[in-house]
Amino acid sequence: MSSVGRWSLCVLLLVACFGGCSRNPEIRKRNYLDKGNAYLQQAKYQEAIIEYQNAIQIDPKFGDAHFGLAKVFLEQRDWNHAYQELSRTVELEPANWNAQISLGNLMLAGGHKLEARHYAETVLQGQPNNVEAEILLANSDAALGLLPKAITEAQDAVRMDPKRSTSYSALAELQERNKDISSAEENYQKAVSVDPKSAGAILVLGRFYVRQSRPADAQREFQSALALDPHDPSPPALLAELFVSQGHKDLAEQVLKDARNNLKDNPTGYRLLGSFYLSQGEWGKAATEFASLHSEHPNDAAVTKSYVEALIELNRLDDAAKLDDALLKNSPSDEAGLIFRGEILVRQGKANDAVPVLAAAVRIAPDNVLAHYQLGVAYAAASNFGQAQSEWQEAARLSPNSVEPERALAALALRQRDFSLLTTTSEKMIQLEPHSSQGYVFHAQALFAKGDHTGAEADLKKAIEVAPRDPTPLIHMGDLLIALKQFDEASKIYSQALALDPSASQALAGLVAVDLERKQPAQALRRMQEQLAHVPANTSLYTLLGQVELRNQDEGKAEEAFQKAIDLDKHNTQALLFLGNAETARGAVDQAIANYQRGIQDNPREVNLYVSLASLFERRGDWQRAQDVYNQALQIQPDNALAANNLAYLMLEHGGNVNVALTLAQTGRRGMPNVPGSADTLGWAYYYQGAYSSAIDTLQQAVNEDPKNPDIHYHLGMAYEKTHKYEMAKKQLEYTLQISPNYPHAEEIRKVLSQTQ
User: Fold this and answer.
1) CA distance 425 to 415
2) How confident is the model over 515-566, as pLDDT tens digits?
3) What is d(CA 662, CA 698) in angstroms, rounded to the nearest whole number?
4) SS3 content of the chain, % helix, strand, coil (to 5)
5) Which domains does the chain have, with CATH numbers?
6) What's residue 22's pLDDT?
7) Residue 447, Cβ neighbours under 10 Å: how many?
8) At residue 507, what are phi and psi to the nearest 5 degrees?
9) Three-state SS for 708?
10) Residue 322 neighbours by CB distance under 10 Å
11) Exposure class string for 730-741: b at 16+ Cβ within 10 A, else e
12) DSSP state of 707
C-alpha cells in the first residue's frame, strides 16, 4: 500500500475511534461531570448546572452528577433544590458519606434535629472515624439541648484528627454556647495555630470577637484573613459588616469597592458592593452598580435579580418588568422572578393580577418566606384582609426571627382594631428588635385601646428612648397627652416632633388640635400658614389646612385647600373625600359626584370613594346607580361594612333579593357592631324574611342605641304589628309621627294605626 493510502487508512481508523468514544455514554457523562466540577471550582454556577444536567440527561442515576448539582445549589443557598439533589444522591449512592453529611447539615439548618442526627449516625456506622460526621453528631445533640454530650463528641472529633482546624472551631463554638468563654477562645485560637494559613479559621476567630464586643480584635483578624487570601470574598464582607456596626459606612464602602476590583472573576465577590447598597437602602447606588455588573455579566441571574430589586424600590417598574420578563422567559418557574412580577403588579395597582402570580410562587416554593409575605401584600392591596393575615402568619411561622411579617400583621391588626392580635405581634416585634421604636409604638396603641394609659405611656417613653431622632413616638405621645387633657405637655411634644421633621403633618395636626381645643382657630390657621411657608408643596399639609378652614367656617378656602392637596397628589383620597363632603354640604352634589368619579379613575381600588359616590346617588334618588356602585365597592372589599349595610337597605326598600339583603345586612352589623343603623338594617331584613321575633330583638337594640331615629321606631312598630302586639306597635308608630310629622311613610303608619284601634 502506498504511503498516502496507509496515511488515509490511519486517519479513518482514528476518526472511527474518536467517533466511537464520543458516542460512548460513560465517557460523555464523565466529560460533562469533569466540566461541571471545573466550573464549580471557579464559582461559575450557572455553567456548572448546565454540565451536571447534561450528565444526568445521559444517565439519570448518575449519583456524582446529582451530588455536584447539590453542591452548586448549596453554594447558591437554594436549599429546596439542594435538598432534592442530596436526597437523590443518597438514594442512588448510600455510601456517599459526604452527601450524607451535607444532607444532615442541611436538615439541621432547617431545624430537623433528629433527622440530622440520623444522618450522622449512619455515616459513623460506615466510617467510625469520620470527623465531619462526629461534628454533625455533636451539633445535632447541641440543637437537641444535650450540650455537655455535644461538647464531649466535639472533643472526640478533635482526638480523631488533632491537626484538623475546623474541629477545634466546632468545639469552641459549643463551649461558647456553654458560656465557657475562656475555653472557647483558647480553641478558636488553637484552630488558627493548627492551620495558620486557613483564612476560614481566622474568620471564625474574628466572628467570635465580634460576638464578644471586641471590635479591634475582630478587625485585626478580618484584615489578617484578607491579607492571607485576597481572592476570598468573606474577609471583605465581614470587615465591611464590622465597620457598618461601628457607624463607619464610608470605610465599609471602600473595603467593598476594593473587593469589587480584586474579585472581578468571583461572582460572590463582585456582587458585594451592590448588595451592600441594597442592605443600606441606597437604591440609586445599588441600581447603578448592578446595571454595570449586568452589562459585564449578563448571564449572572443573581446580578439580574438584585438589579430588578433595586429598580422596583426606585419605582422604575417598566425597567424592572422588562428584566424580570427575560428572567422568567429563561426560567418560567423561577420563584424570585415570580415574586418580583407579583410585587411589580401590586405597585402598578394590579393587585388582583398579582395574587395568582404570587400564589404560583408559593406553590413552587411553599417554604419561601418572601413569597408568602408578598402574597399577603397582594391580598391586602386587593382588600382581602383575611387571606393577607393568613399569608403573613405563615411567613412569620416559617421565619420566626423575621420582623417584616410581624410588622405587617401589626398594621393590619391596627386597621381592623384587633387589639389582641396587635398586642401579640407588637410584643414579638419588641423581642426581635428591642432597639427599634416601632414595636413599642404598636404596643402602646394596643394598651391605649384597652384603657391602659399608664402602660401606653411607658411604652412610648421607651420608644422615644431607643429612637430619640424619630418623630413618630413623639407624635403618639402627644396624642396620648391630648386624650388625657394635658394640652400644654402635648403641645411641647408635638413641637419637638415637628422640629425633627418639618413635614410631619401628624405633629402639626396635633398642634392644631390643641389650638382648637383651646378655642383658638386663628392661632391654628396661623400655624398652618407658617408651616406651609417652610414646606410649600406638601399634600398632607394642605389637607390639614382645609380641615382648619372648615373649623373656621370658611368653606370656600377649605375647598381650595383640598383641591390644592389633590393637585399635588391625585392619590390623596383623604383630600378627595373631604372635598366631596364640603361640596355636598353646600349643595353642589353634581360637582361632588364628578370629583368622586375622577378620583375613582385615579384610585380604582379605593373603596371609600365608591361608597361616598353611591351615597350621593342614593341621596339624589338614583337608587339603581347607587346599588351598582355599592356592588363595585363590595367587589373590591367584600367585607366593607358600610357598603354592605347601605346596599342591603336599598335592596329591601326597592324589591331586591331578601336573602342576599339579609347576608349583606349581617356583614354590615359584624363590621359596625356599635352603629345603630347596622342594627336597624339587619332588623328590617329579618322583618322582610318574616323572622319577626329576631327583627324585634335587633330593632330594640337599635332603638336603645339611637332613641330619636324615626326610621328605627317605624320598623320596630311594623314588626310589633306583624306579631299582633298592637299596643306596642301603636306606641312606636305614634312616636315616629311625633318626632317626624312629615315622615315619608306617614300615610302607611296612619293606615296601620287605624287598623289597630
Assistant:
1) 14
2) 888 888 888 888 888 888 887 888 888 998 898 888 888 899 999 999 999 9
3) 13
4) 80, 0, 20
5) 197-270 (1.25.40.10)
6) 54
7) 23
8) -65, -45
9) coil
10) 12
11) bebbebbbeebe
12) T
Integer Cα distance of 154 and 172 in angstroms: 9
Amino acid at 687: Y
Best CA proximity match to 183, nearest among 172, 191, 170, 194: 172
Give the three cell numbers for residue 738: 311625633
Question: pTM for this one?
Answer: 0.68
Q: Which of 250, 306, 304, 248 is nearest to 275 (CA)?
A: 306
Q: Which residues neighbour 454 within 8 Å (Cβ) at sequence distance 6 or greater? A: none
Runs of H (alpha helix) within 196-300:
199-211, 215-228, 234-245, 249-262, 267-270, 272-279, 283-296
**Residue tagged 469533569 (cell numbers):** 34
Question: Within the chain, what is the greatest distance between any pair of CA atoms?
Answer: 137
Which alpha helices (DSSP H) does 569-675 contain, by range?
573-585, 589-602, 607-619, 623-636, 641-653, 658-671
User: Cα(321)–Cα(172) distance, rounded to whole angstroms?
Assistant: 48
Give, rounded to a whole angstrom, the gap between the first and last alpha carbons of the chain: 137
CA–CA dist 410, 442 (Å, integer): 7
- Please classify residue 536 by burial: count the beta carbons closer than 10 Å to its beta carbon, then call 0-12 exposed, 13-18 middle and 19+ buried: exposed
308, 327 in Cβ contact below 8 A? yes
Give tens-digit pLDDT for 157-175.
999 989 999 899 999 999 9
| 241/247 Cα distance (integer angstroms) | 10
pLDDT confidence bin for 9, thresholds 50/70/90: very low
Closest CA to 490 of 466, 460, 533: 460
Contacts (Cβ under 8 Å, ≥6 apart) of 434: 466
CA 407 to chain centre: 8
Taken as a whole, the chain contains a residue count of 757
Cell of residue 311, nine digits: 429598580
- The Cα–Cα gap between 112 and 136 comes to 13
In the block, which residue shows the cell 441600581? 287
Amino acid at 130: N
Phi (first) and psi of residue 365, to 5 degrees: -130, 80
Helix axes 272-279 and 301-313, enclosed angle (nearest 10): 30
For 177, phi then psi, to 5°, come to -65, -25
Q: What is the DSSP letter of 535?
A: S
Query: 311 in helix, strand or coil?
Result: helix
Residues with Cβ within 8 Å of residue 43, at least 6 apart in sequence:
75, 266, 267, 268
Residue 700 near residue 716 (C-beta atoms within 8 A): yes
- For residue 19, the tally of other CB atoms under 10 A from its CB is 10
Helix (H) or strand (E) holding 39: helix 25-41
The alpha-carbon radius of gyration of the chain (Å, integer) is 35
Mean pLDDT of the chain: 91
Q: Helix, strand, or coil here: 606?
A: coil
